[in-house]
Amino acid sequence: MQFTDLGLAEPLLRAVREQGYDTPTPIQQQAIPAVLAGGDLMAGAQTGTGKTAGFTLPMLHRLAAAGPKRDARGRIAIRALILTPTRELAAQVEESVRTYGKYLPLKSMVMFGGVGMQPQIDRLRQGVDILVATPGRLLDHYGQRTLDLSQVEIFVLDEADRMLDMGFIHDIKKVLAVLPAKKQSLLFSATFSDEIKALADRLLNQPALIEVARRNSTVEAIVQKVHPVGRERKKELLAHLIKQGDWHQVLVFTRMKHGANRLAEYLNEHGISAMAIHGNKSQTARTKALADFKRGELQVLVATDIAARGIDIDQLPHVVNFELPNVPEDYVHRIGRTGRAGATGEAISLACVDEDIFLRDIERLIKRSIPREPVPGFEPPAGEKAEPIVLGRMTIGVGGTRRHGNAPAGRGGGGGSQGRSAGHGGGGRPAAQAGGGGRPAAHHGGAGGGANGGRSASGGGSGDGRPRPAQGGPRRHDDRPRAGQAARRDGGPRR
């Protein structure tokens, strides 16, 4: 099957051809006709399969065919709303909208927190057909009556599983309450948990159901290996691998933001250009680091799990787990940043004896053993004993003992889950993370799109649009606002 067989308008086909694609991915082959037909859709697919283009292309087709609408003030009305959980993913999706809609008379914008509201207000006044937003900042604008959602015809909830994981269910309900009852609704998720099905029942009307990949499976094109190493030599080993292999584009994951900072500093000191991105970095810094990395000007990007949302790079060759995640589902989605859309990739994990429990959980989840390949000269010291890992308020002990207040064993926040604290929607349950590929196959759009003004004077903004932990619950160990940046939920701008 070719894109030309899907019934898309010629301007869209032209844009797709310019990106070098002619064959749709399996999710696109099913999703595009379903969306074009005008019905609701519930779709699930592994990260890197082209989910974003699966709704972007038919959405653009339908909006262009219907022609523009005007709101009560005579401005171009918002006819499509795409809701995403994080800033980076929102920017990625909006970039895809602009990439594939470049030959159509449609206007789009991205809206998220961490930047000033006024540039976004100015852009809204000019009129937009398609709005991509995070929930918190969207509700801020709606509360201040700077936007009108009464004419939305197509609503897309992207990464629905991540939305629920980050505690957005109440914000989603608020958004649904102000949208027109009659609309086309599309829900995309990496998993179909009971919570997702309950949300779908509320949102969707007799939806088509598409699922093209087994839950928690890993892409066969990704070469996975574990390098056992002593806990004190991880940094040295990583630098050795990068230099020996002449790696020029490496995405490295750490559990916590301070670990990302220290690792980036170490690599720079040893002649390897690196930057860290996490929730305490300004949006300007995060956008610049991601853009430099995508252009190949930055050799290594060190990221926490949440900050890596929306990292979508054409043929990213290497993903390194500098620290294994304590939530095994996160491993699947970390390594899914490579091997996208049929390309090959390498996923390497640097594992010390302390992380054996994490490795066992990961292998149990993916139902396969990951090959161990010691690197000569970096083997773990003989007789090195496992030590407990302290992740904020959670201790993961020797032999698999886990403690987190009154949380059940194996649950809790911090660590690799970055932000799944007990104050975050019910005990910090593990979550599957979805990628944000905004392309038919492996499109590498920029991350900056939209109005990126400076930080608001109040220090507000929605950050990643996430609600803060519940009062009295543990604080999040990553992506917390800095002092003075958290604003009231009841009236002030959201983080």
Structural write-up:
This protein is an alpha/beta fold. It folds into 2 domains: 3-211, P-loop containing nucleotide triphosphate hydrolases (Rossmann fold), CATH 3.40.50.300; 222-385, P-loop containing nucleotide triphosphate hydrolases (Rossmann fold), CATH 3.40.50.300. It is 31% helix and 14% strand. It has 14 helices and 16 strands. The protein has helices spanning 10-18, 26-36, 51-66, 87-100, 118-126, 135-143, 160-165, 169-178, 194-203, 234-245, 257-269, 283-295, 328-335, 356-366, and strands spanning 41-44, 80-83, 108-111, 130-133, 154-157, 184-189, 208-211, 222-228, 250-253, 274-277, 300-303, 318-321, 345-351, 389-391, 394-396, 402-403. A 7-stranded parallel β-sheet has the order 3-4-2-5-6-1-7, sandwiched between helices. It has a 6-stranded parallel β-sheet with strand order 8-13-12-9-11-10, with helices on both faces. It has a 3-stranded antiparallel β-sheet with strand order 14-15-16, with no helix packed on it. Helix 5 (118-126) links the parallel strand 3 and strand 4 (130-133).
Task: Describe the structure concisely for a colleague.
By secondary structure, this protein is an alpha/beta fold. The chain has 14 helices and 16 strands. It has helices spanning 10-18, 26-36, 51-66, 87-100, 118-126, 135-143, 160-165, 169-178, 194-203, 234-245, 257-269, 283-295, 328-335, 356-366, and strands at 41-44, 80-83, 108-111, 130-133, 154-157, 184-189, 208-211, 222-228, 250-253, 274-277, 300-303, 318-321, 345-351, 389-391, 394-396, 402-403.
